[in-house]
Amino acid sequence: MVTRSRKILVTGFGAFGGVQSNPTERIVQHIGNNPPENIAVSAVTLPVSWGKMPVILRQHLRAKRWDGVLLMGVAATRPCWSIETTAKNRAANLQDATGELPPCDVLVPGAPIYLTSSWNSETLVRLVAATGLPVQLSGDAGEYLCNAALYICLAELAGKGNPAGFLHVPADRGTCSADIKADVGTEFDFDSQLKAFYAILNAMAA
Predict the structure, then answer these.
(1) How confident is the model at residue 186 (pLDDT cuts 50, 70, 90)?
(2) Catalytic-role residue among 25, 153, 156, 168
């Protein structure tokens, strides 16, 4: 009997502000260069753009029936990996990487204020913790592009049974420009980023 490979959509974000090298973009690049043998991964870097990101993300979400969606972004001042549980229908009045502001403070007009991640957050926390990395559940994905990606994803996949959620990763040694390094807590290496990522990817593909 031939087992079908699980189809997982993985996204990260590009550089913005003082984040000179987004570790989630590097994870996406790593997957592109080292595709897993047993998982059909589509890895996409999303632009840090209020206008472009929703269009690109929806295109990929609608392209096929995904067995899981793993969205990622960096939270450079957090001291650990964060498994996000909730997204809110809100866009803060903050400039994106191109200097543009969100067109509206609501991400999806008429949709609920909050949506809940459809993956098993508690299990994923345990799996990442088992690698020896610091990890937490988080109920606040912010009001920037990370939260927007999670909310749009959950709204698109509502009722379809696809496990989906957002992983916020901390800064590693290549993340921040010199002028904001002083505000960043513990810095990790890129191998740690991959360790956390693969713990979640393999769980979603099981």
Answers:
(1) low
(2) 168
**110: alpha, beta or left? (left if phi > 0; alpha if psi -120 to 50):** left
Those residues with Cβ within 8 angstroms of residue 117's Cβ, 6 or more apart along the chain or in another chain: 83, 84, 85, 86, 87, 150, 154, 164, 165, 166
With cut-offs at 50, 70 and 90, classify the pLDDT of residue 3: low
**Measuring CA to CA, which residue among 147, 121, 175 is closest to residue 57?**
147
What pLDDT sits at residue 2?
44
Kindly give the pairing relationship between strand 81-84 and strand 164-169. antiparallel
Please report, for the chain, the start and end positions of each structural domain, with discontinuous segments joined by +.
6-205
Q: Structure pTM?
A: 0.94
pLDDT mean over 6-10: 96
Asked if the 6-205 domain carries CATH number 3.40.640.10, the reply is: no
80 has catalytic annotation: no
145 closest CA partner among 43, 22, 8? 22
Distance (Å, whole) CA 50 – CA 145: 7
Active-site hit among 80, 146, 153, 176: 146
Mean pLDDT of 9-27: 96
pLDDT for the residue 18: 87
Active site residue 60: no
Catalytic residue among 25, 84, 153, 176: 84
| Tokens encoding 51 | 């206008």
Give yes or no: 146 in active site: yes
Q: Where are the alpha helices (DSSP H) in the chain?
A: 23-33, 52-63, 121-129, 145-157, 190-205
